[in-house]
Amino acid sequence: xxxKSGEFEGFNQRIADAMVxxxxxxGGLPQYLGIHLREMTPGRLVAxxxxxxxxxxxxxxxxxxxxxxxxxxxxxCVLYPLMKPGQWAATTEFxxxxxxxxxxxxxxxxxxxxxxxxxxxxxxxxxxxxxTLACVAQGTLLVSDPPGAK
Amino acid sequence: xxxKSGEFEGFNQRIADAMVxxxxxxGGLPQYLGIHLREMTPGRLVAxxxxxxxxxxxxxxxxxxxxxxxxxxxxxCVLYPLMKPGQWAATTEFxxxxxxxxxxxxxxxxxxxxxxxxxxxxxxxxxxxxxTLACVAQGTLLVSDPPGAK
Amino acid sequence: xxxKSGEFEGFNQRIADAMVxxxxxxGGLPQYLGIHLREMTPGRLVAxxxxxxxxxxxxxxxxxxxxxxxxxxxxxCVLYPLMKPGQWAATTEFxxxxxxxxxxxxxxxxxxxxxxxxxxxxxxxxxxxxxTLACVAQGTLLVSDPPGAK
Amino acid sequence: xxxKSGEFEGFNQRIADAMVxxxxxxGGLPQYLGIHLREMTPGRLVAxxxxxxxxxxxxxxxxxxxxxxxxxxxxxCVLYPLMKPGQWAATTEFxxxxxxxxxxxxxxxxxxxxxxxxxxxxxxxxxxxxxTLACVAQGTLLVSDPPGAK
Lengths: 150, 150, 150, 150
Prior knowledge:
The structure is a homotetramer.
Chain A: H1 13-22, H2 28-33, E1 36-41, E2 44-50, H3 64-77, E3 88-98, E4 106-116, E5 120-129, E6 132-144
Antiparallel strand pairs in A: 1-2, 2-4, 3-6, 4-5, 5-6
């Protein structure tokens, strides 16, 4: 995806490495879903999660909310190595299209920053199920300073 | 919301009652989130979930994926009493806007069917946090026949 | 739609009246489409446009882009009486669902502000065709200061 | 974008060529906007439009509805060479993110089919302004048979 040259100059490899190393220990929804951050490069994140039986509906496919939760997490995580220490990113909106039912295997999300400003970013997420495109999403995130920052 | 008169004539009160009575026992993501279906009338569903600490991010707000999972579940559930026995509904796309950070209390979703055809439906979900609008969503669902149906 | 009490306190009736009085003379896409602003109250706008033959595709329905242009215009206009003089609103994203084909008659859009902050707003638009819901949309707008403002 | 091998086998080069050759003569919104179809290959369309002064708002940027109309048109056109003769495609929903204000020059849209079934398709559109990404969109289209078809 084309971005302006230098747009991701502030990429912090140390933060990226720390996020990948610890992604299974964060608790909450990401841990329930089993999301693993695999690879973080400037403006790009690859994450995976296994489709375990508990995440399947009685109709035999992954619950749409599972995919949505996975997507939302990947929308935000890709931004952390690009932000200043202490800043945080919150999704303000996103949209997803489910392309096919997912019944088993692994989901692999590729999260790509399409534009990054001082206060907001637009991110795209493509999710594949064992190599086949299963869901596409795009959303906006707000970048906030830590409380007390000037 | 205006709909064509008679659009929800096929509403099945028995299915609605059974869904409300059993909504806490379905397992999977809805049970992890703690979603309770409270009230189902033709073309409308009210559901709630409590914001427990595990669903909060380190930044102190409900994880966006939690809200997305809640919304996705409410998009689909409102359709079951309107479909023929054995049919099922799958979200094909949805979009949500987060209006404000949610830190505690209860989320209440109102899911409203905006249009209902033989094969697809458009549904809107408004989520309030202790009375204040916190998230709005709209999406499309595909209605499918059971395997083997003609 | 519930909003926080006082959220629209800054509503400027004079700006609203001027917009309604002059809406047919703005030129560009809105004039090509024939959009008329009919009524502006705090956080709410009603606008109409007639479905003239030129806006119909060879398949006999209003071009989706006509509806999208109408929606986009209504997303932004509702904010002007709520902003400070000189500020302007730009759509940063929106999503729409087409509920039924529109073949003739008048389109009436109701644009409602769901949340309004200092820098952004979320707005919903419902479009009816001769009384029947034909399109629903929701989007985000960025509020900007005039160049040179501090 | 990965798609299943053979997914676009039915691509009809003659229809594609005819659409490219005649795209400036269709009338209606596409002609008002000045949309030119430039290149159609299986599952992919490139189209352009010039940003003429009439399409700029008083704030100095392309009207959001102009971009939305351009996107909607490109969402649908990419499908025609993939459908059976007489079938038509109607957008049922789409969403777009505006990445930066467009003030002059040319808009170039790349429309890509992400999934194509017998009855519906999901399409992505990226719009660049003189080489820089300016808008991204994704949407769903319904494929319909001509009246009277069995």
